[in-house]
Amino acid sequence: MAAVDSAYTDFDSDRAMVERSQELSSKELSEARDKATEAQRRLVDAIESISEGFSLYDADDKLVIYNRRYRDMHGTASINVVNQGVSFETILRNATASGEIRDAEGRVEAWIEQRLAQHRDPKGTHVQRRSDGRWIQINERKTDDGGTVATYTDITDVKKAEQAIQEERTAAARHRRGRAYGGGDRNL
């Protein structure tokens, strides 16, 4: 009888340890979930805080995360396509079909193939002209897991300033040529 009582005591002790272990596991799991939720919230807040558009595509080229600026850089015809899980190619094809990409005009398929190649094997920064007059600088990099992370910067003001400088130089050169060919003093 003592052996049976001892077995029940051991069983109760083991059961108490299992229950305690489950309580700790549940508490630890809850704490880990809270920490993960907080980390995700901070990441989203940080991504939304940057002044550039931001996107991350996974190794299958599906959109994982993006910020509002990235979404807003797309025209009204394709903005609704920019969603998690949508492929880069789908977003790209939608943008060209709606006429958003000036660089693609008149050569859509060739441009799409070129842009997909750039995206799949990024070699740094490139600039894209949009049909609404904006210029977007795109900087893409591969992630260790085969995804693609990118930032998109609206450089329209820089391009307009470059154009204004070029126009001033052209006007100054015309003025100099005009003076050299007949604008001088004829009373000599």
Short descriptors:
5 helices, five-stranded antiparallel β-sheet, elongated, 188 residues, alpha+beta
Characterise this structure:
- With 188 residues, this protein is of the alpha+beta class.
- The protein is 54% helix and 16% strand.
- It contains 5 helices and 5 strands, in the order αββαααβββα.
- Strands 2-1-5-4-3 form a 5-stranded antiparallel β-sheet.
- It is elongated and about 125 Å long.
- The termini are far apart.
- The mean pLDDT is 86.
> Which word captures the global form?
elongated
Specify the helix fraction band. Answer: 40-55%
Beta strand %: 15-25%
In the sheet with the most strands, the strands line up as 2-1-5-4-3
The low-pLDDT segments are none
Mean pLDDT across every amino acid position:
86
Structural class based on helices, strands and sheet pairing? alpha+beta
Q: What is the strand tally?
A: 5
Summarize the entry for a quick read:
By secondary structure, the protein is α+β, with helices and mostly antiparallel strands. Helices cover 54% and strands 16% of the residues.
Task: Tell me the layout of helices and strands.
Layout: H1 2-49, E1 53-57, E2 63-66, H2 68-72, H3 88-97, H4 108-120, E3 124-129, E4 135-142, E5 148-154, H5 156-180
Antiparallel strand pairs: 1-2, 1-5, 3-4, 4-5
